[in-house]
Amino acid sequence: MTDLHNSLHAIYDEVSRRNPGEVEFHQAVYEVLDSLGPVVDKHPDYVDSAVIRRLCEPERQIIFRVPWVDDAGAVQINRGFRVEFNSALGPFKGGLRFHPSVYLGIVKFLGFEQIFKNALTGLPIGGGKGGSDFDPKGRSDGEVMRFCQSFMTELYRHIGEYTDVPAGDTGVGTREIGYLFGQYKRITNRYESGALTGKGLTWGGAQVRTEATGYGTVFFVDEILRSNGQSFDGKRVVVSGSGNVATYAIDKIHQLGGTVLACSDSGGYVVDERGIDLDLLKEIKEIRRGRIAEYAEARPETARFVGDGSVWDVECDVALPCATQNELDYDAALRLTKSGCRVVAEGANMPCTPQAVKLFAESGVIFAPGKAANAGGVATSALEMQQNASRDSWSFDDTEQRLAAIMRRIHERCIATADEYDRPGNYVVGANIAGFTRVADAMLALGVV
Ligand code: NDP
User: Which of 60, 150, 172, 361 could form a disulfide with 168 if both were Cys (CB 3.0 to 4.6 A apart)?
Assistant: First the structure.
């Protein structure tokens, strides 16, 4: 890691001291502060008015017990979280993650990132995140429903279309949003569609929301390739994960002429030399809720499953980490760089370690951080809120074009801001500074609140 600007060092030390043990949160804060040196040189008022210190402290943090009864009749207890990080630009907005690894530090890292990502979209949304250490894997629909109902029985007091608008994330898809929305509607006696996004199409959801994060990431990479006189046509791509983001990234890459050779889950990865068959992947992952190993069993002629390696061992031109935080470390980055990978874009949140990002910069690999590259999901959630507020619904094509235009504008903002601060082509600097200045200026305008 590089050394932070003096005034930012003190802020980082304070964050580490006040939030002990929350290593992912520290990492996310450091990553943003690391870009802000030239900004505070130019605008010392951001430090003097404590905007940066205030940004590092969530406006509100809620932790609650989630008791529920499993299919065997046993009482289970999980922990629920909602971190309402910053509402200078609009209601808190960010997903819910259900995964056994969830604790306060993960929710705070995600909520912190979300502030700048949401600012970067140019839309009126603040930043927040939530979730639980509940593991939906292997649970029946009835168990997932009872868990979601119990979770919402506490969460409903804190959310609403003008307050805080949760959505999906890892482990939370349309099924979970349905159970959460059903319970919210029942408790509040209001059909308040704008209180949650990621809803099903027949009950207030928006076209393209399911596809948005994966499609948006690929649109962003397409902008990168175009600005270098290239396209996806003929490119070999590796995508990690096989959940929501990965699936729709694969879909769009194939539409644009690239070939996705490999994808993964936490049990291993599959390589398919003919390109990942999206219908088969969806059948296994979305319908059967199965494991990626089943893909190779279904296509033994071209596909193989590797249970004990890293998906980043597969040679490619473009790599899209779309699974989880810190999944792509220095060694993986070195293998990718040596085998000719030229572009890495984060479909997931913070999947590349700081050491990997540094290596990409030193090796001339173009690197797009999640704040910019995966912002299409939350942007389309904001479009869902817009449609809910006006009781309208737009077509798939119309919404997809809006998503593509948003990703184009985010790309332009990153490039323009990186140029302004003499770091041409540096998407990390561009995204962090462009997102930060939008939210910081709003905070200055709103006073000390
Ligand atoms: P899903 O739950 O749909 O899928 C996650 C995928 O990642 C699964 O295939 C999972 O495999 C895999 N995975 C998890 N941990 C590991 C690991 N350690 N090694 C390999 N694979 C792993 O989540 P999403 O697709 O929604 O989210 C993925 C990432 O994208 C997260 O970082 C999320 O925060 C981010 N994101 C999501 C958005 C959205 O709209 N959904 C928006 C913006 C960012 P397994 O099933 O085995 O656990």
Answer: 172
